[in-house]
Amino acid sequence: MQLELRNVCKKVGREFHISDVSLTFTAGSLNILLGPTLSGKTSLMRLMAGLDQPTSGTIHVDNRDVTGVPVQKRNVAMVYQQFINYPNLTVFENIASPLRIAKVPAAEIKERVAKVAALLKLEKLLRRSPQELSGGQQQRTALARALVKGAELVLLDEPLANLDYKLREELREELPRIFSATGAIFVYATTEPSEALLLGGNTASLHQGRVTQFGPTIEVFSRPRNLITAQTLSDPPMNLLPVTKLNNTMLYKSHVEVPLLGPLPHLPDDDYTIAFRPHHLSLNRHSDRDIAVKAKVAVTEITGSESYVHVDVAGVRWVLLARGIHNIDIDETIEIFLDPSKFYVYDRNGALVVTPEAVAGA
Amino acid sequence: MAKVTLNDIAHSYNGPSDNPDDYALKKLDLVWRDGGAYALLGPSGCGKTTLLNIISGLLIPTRGQVLFNDQDVTRLPTEQRNIAQIFQFPVIYDTMTVFENLAFPLKNRGRTKEEIEPRVIELAGMLGLSRNLYTKAQHLTADAKQKISLGRGLIRKSVNAILFDEPLTVIDPQLKWELRSQLKYLHKQFQFTMIYVTHDQTEALTFADEVIVMYEGKIVQVGTPEALFERPEHTFVGYFIGSPGMNIAPCTLQGNRAVVEGHDIVLGRTYRDIPAGAKIELGIRPEYLALNPPEGQGVPVRIVKVDDIGRHKIVRVGLNGRELNVVMPELSGMTGNNARLVFDIDHTNIYVNDQLVPGEPR
Amino acid sequence: MIVKQTNQKAWFMVLPVFLVVAFSAVIPLMTVVNYSVQDTFGNNVFFWVGMDWFKELIHSDRFHAAFLRQLLFSGIILAIEVPLGIVIALAMPRKGWGVPVCLISMALPLLIPWNVVGTIWQIFGRVDIGLLGHSLASLGIDYNYTQDPIAAWLTVIVMDVWHWTSLVVLLCYAGLCSIPDAYYQAAKIDGASRWSVFRYIQLPKMQRVLLIAILLRFMDSFMIYTEPFVITGGGPGNSTTFMSIDLVKMAVGQFDLGPAAAMSLVYFLVILLLSWVFYTVMSNIGENSSNGGGR
Questions:
Q1: Quick one: A295 and A342 in the same domain?
Q2: Which residues of chain B make contact with A302, given a CB cutoff of 8 A?
Q3: Are both A140 and A216 inside the same structural domain?
Q4: Which helix (H) or strand (E) holds A167?
């Protein structure tokens, strides 16, 4: 199966919840919708499921227009953030419920439930009631119910958001294996970049109802074509340095001067934004090319093996990620180092004009 | 502000009982110094929320005492304890403006307008709420609302302690960074005694001077973020802290040598007098394992899976039948599926019956 | 093309409803409109009179009196039932065995048919055999709802309060139960008084159900007919002749079909207008207080 959205818009009142989204998902693929709250993830999923109709644009399955087909007639399954199970049925009956509705013979139900229960490690819990289960097991049950009917499109709307950190990690680890065992199209909404990176697959970065970039997750992470995508994919957040190029200098106020490496001298004079990730900002000099900058420490967070140093540089706030424990006092002025070979340069419209590879290749 | 002492606290939701299984909180003794930042960390059902409710006065413990400085507050209702609390979801007064929300706790205590106004304006500035000071609170975004809740907690300088109950649950990842560092900054400014309950290790470690790790109603370790990371005293702490958690592998010990899956590993310390029949395990964090090319030094392993999560790679390796996680910034020089695994012996811990044993210097 | 098929099917499905509405509402309404612009002396002889009935109605003292009476009645009813309902809802237990007991006893008056309610109070208030009327009389209070307009009003109002306050209580109670505990705890921590908790937490959170309660009670009390008809028959004099009673008197008693039709149209438009105002206010508040949620 192939699912295709062509120029889909959804207008509610005077507001566009989704504007001009075109996406193609192929069978057996995992597709992540990544964006903050209200960026349009749920709206887009509802359109894909057929729960809502687009205001304009069309939705195609294997090149067949299915735009007006209601959800009951589509082969889709959905898993929500809340653990939705029938409280008065056992885990077995919960998983079997879509098959019972479809009037599948009892012997086949048993076989299919057993298979999907094994995939989700629920074999030993089949006789229990959902209320006796932990949050993780409840969500596994909901997932099993979505998978058992063999839906061609499975939509997961922040399925791990209500779980404990460690349970989240555990399920996240298992999900790609579960997904690849079924062959359906999976669409997975999340607000967390780290989740997208751990799951892999493809990522569509969403911002205010628009897809800002779509492609393999690691590629979107390492080559964000616009500033918004770069920010959406970064946790800890991207550090930004607004600069002005004039003649042969590139300056942030009078505070930071960026050496014109690689293709940088060929850029027209204008305002640019340089973005780089916290682990590319350092407390020590690594190469001669590094730019030294004076910064005032705002706060330091220690995670056990690493330290996040939040600094102020003449009005911009950056996060520096350093290995080891660095407990630096608030308001202390320190010297930090920027590696220009890790710079993404965006023009005033937020489009990528210079990649780190281009700078590093110089 | 106050020192908080928990004296022999235990709680059972079914009243006093002789059965230890009835107790959601087993025996607890803790002293928290005035002005410290503490985190209660554990999975759901570990008793951390029960403990928080005992401190806030929502629950009276079955046994034991709660002291603020030297005053016994065990049986005092919430309103007489002079504490503040920030909840999982923003609790704001919808019909009031941001200013009125922040001023509310002071107004209720009969402070004059001259006292209230400068304090509210100062705090709003620190929280970044100055621009919205006179808008109705209900029109703001989730993170701004949570800032208001936080502000109401911080507004009174006299509070004994500020309690946080998973306050970042509904906040988007990028904004979590801002709120977390702001909170830490405010703590440094005002020196309140703060107690932060969470299941998220990153939040606990970055926030607290000292983290209390709880598991099944008991405290398994109290320590600085660094100690919890480097020297987990219990295998649960090793597993729960760190992402991915510590690798734990059964082993046998011969003096300063551990045998894991038939491979000899020379340790930095010597272990004697291990009781016979005890469960012996070796624990090492993925960050302290490294991979060499197959012709290099180390234990021969098979690479099962590589997850590129952007900042670094998580490599799953097979050591005979056992799988271990290795965190590597780059995987250079490795082409096939085979590699050599190197242990950092200074960061290799030995656990007997799940408890860390220190061993002796060689 | 699938789109069109589905749509046609949908039309087909709503056809029965459409027919029922046509026969039960639209056709009678058109008949009334027809009557309101004509005069008749019986024998199916009709004269076209245009807007005359409406002009006469608008300038008639009788209509003004009934309309004011009606407004006053609805105003008093709302002024009593809404605050009383809120107070009772606040006093009801939130958990334990008291909850079902309270809910059932609150629901009881709502289950009694209107004419039975009227009859109950008609007998209850009688001086000769009614418990209320007799007790008041033996206390030396001059109470007779068949002769004293004030007594008649009091009886009808007390009856309506007895009958319908429960509705307000149940709606408010539902609103109160949806407030998370964290709000009450936060209020305690903030040192809020009982009044502040009501003013800043309970009332704002009840706002939407309260508007529904007010709308329902307003429409219902504005159209009240059965109970006052059973108790007082609109008397003594015309003191409890509310608009619906007046309308029936005009149409059935005097057989003035034209004026009655005009009056029922005006009556209908007044209710429609006021309901529309309520609806607009409610949906505005709904928009303002919605938190967006996931999109």
A1: yes
A2: 205-206, 225-226
A3: yes
A4: helix A165-180
CATH superfamily of C60-289: MetI-like (1.10.3720.10)
Do A8 and A151 lie in one domain? The reply is yes
Best mutation site among B166, B175, B181 for testing chain A: the one with the most A CBs within 10 Å? B181
Res A166: pLDDT: 85
Q: A265 lies in a domain?
A: yes
A19 is in which domain, residue-wise?
2-226
Same domain, A215 and A262: no
Which pLDDT tens digit goes with each residue over C91-122?
998 888 889 999 999 888 888 887 888 888 88
E strand spans, B182-256:
194-198, 210-215, 218-223, 247-250, 252-254
Contacts of A65 in chain C (CB under 8 A): 2
Q: Tell me the helix, strand and coil percentages in chain A, rounded to 5.
A: 30, 35, 35
- Per the CB < 8 A criterion, the answer to whether A333 and A344 are in contact is no
Contact C182 B105 (CB under 8 A): no
Q: What is the mean pLDDT of chain B?
A: 90
Residue A75 to residues A26, A51, C170: CA-CA distances in angstroms? 15, 12, 42
Q: What is the pLDDT of residues A3-57, one digit of tens each?
A: 999 999 999 888 899 999 999 999 889 999 999 988 999 999 999 999 999 999 9
- Domain closes at, from A187, A205, A226: A226
Enumerate the domain spans of chain C: 60-289
Chain A residue with CA closest to B201: the answer is: A165
Q: What are the chain C neighbours of B150 within 8 Å (beta carbons)?
A: none
Place of tokens 């590597």: B328
What torsion, rounded to 10 degrees, do the Cα atoms B76, B79, B84, B89 define? 110
Walk me through the domains of chain B, giving residue ranges and CATH numbers: 4-239 (3.40.50.300), 247-361 (2.40.50.140)
Q: Please write the tens of the pLDDT for every residue from C216-272.
A: 888 888 888 877 787 777 777 777 778 788 878 877 777 777 778 888 888 888 888
For C188, the closest of B78, B88, B149 (CB atoms) is B78
pLDDT digits 0-9 by tens, A192-202: 999 999 898 99
A20 with A159, same domain: the answer is: yes
